[in-house]
Amino acid sequence: MNRGKKSTSITETQKTTLIEFLKNNPLLISGKFSNSFTFKDATAKWVEITEVLNSIPGAIKDWRNWRKTWQDLRSRTKLKKSEINKHHGGTGGGPPTEKELTPSEISILDIVKAVSIEGHKVPESPANFNFEETDKIVHDLLNENQKEQILVVQKEKALSNKENIQPSTSQRKIPEKALSNKENIQPSTSQRKIPKRSKISNGMVVNEFNTLYKQKIQIKESYYNKKIELLTRIAVAKEKSATSIEKIADTLTELTYNLT
Predict the structure, then answer these.
(1) Domain limits for position 211
(2) Subunit details for this protein (predicted)?
(3) Mean pLDDT: which of 210-219, 231-240, 246-255 is highest?
(4) Taking a C-beta distance cutoff of 8 angstroms, is the pair 181, 135 a contact?
(5) Which terminus of the chain faces fewer neighbouring Cβ atoms within 10 Å, N or C?
(6) Contact 187, 105 (CB under 8 A)
(7) Residue 244 and residue 128: Cα distance in Å, rounded?
């Protein structure tokens, strides 16, 4: 046969061969792609069956037209089946329909039904990443840490002022008259001693400083733990978002594949 001249009328042998091939390759019928069955894989399959069909006496087509041939066969068969069902379900009392499904059409419906049943899988929930919620979490986290830092600084400032206010420990001046008489000079016992209350106060200041220091460490530790948790959540959300985008791209490719 002259390969340069293309025929559009397929033979029964070509039709049977095409149906049998699609029966063994249901992924071509579903039109759904995945990592294990890509658009490139589907195209390769159609090219493969095209070589076989074109080697059989009958129509000569490229792979896109053979795929279109299958789509037309499927559509016409489903329409015919629908018309037969409507007639059988009618109550008009008219003559019985003369339409009957051919063996090839029955095989086509069997393939379509099998793919339809197996293809009804539970859809995976899409990953919704709320960037506004993430921004709010970051804002609240920073505000919380800032407030805690301000509180610590205020306490440190108050303690610093408290520490600077101490009772005077300067010596009293000895009257000049008492100094004129050396015999009457005795060791001064008038030097003011640091009250016990002041010593206790200093000890409290030290303890409070130690407490504040521990609080600062705890605040920083809490802040960095929250930050790590937030960054982890963002990373997971972005990964899910990337997966969703990849699925959308596969769907668009699938639509393009079915329309071409």
Answers:
(1) 131-167+193-253
(2) Self-associates forming complexes of several hundred monomers.
(3) 210-219
(4) no
(5) C
(6) no
(7) 9
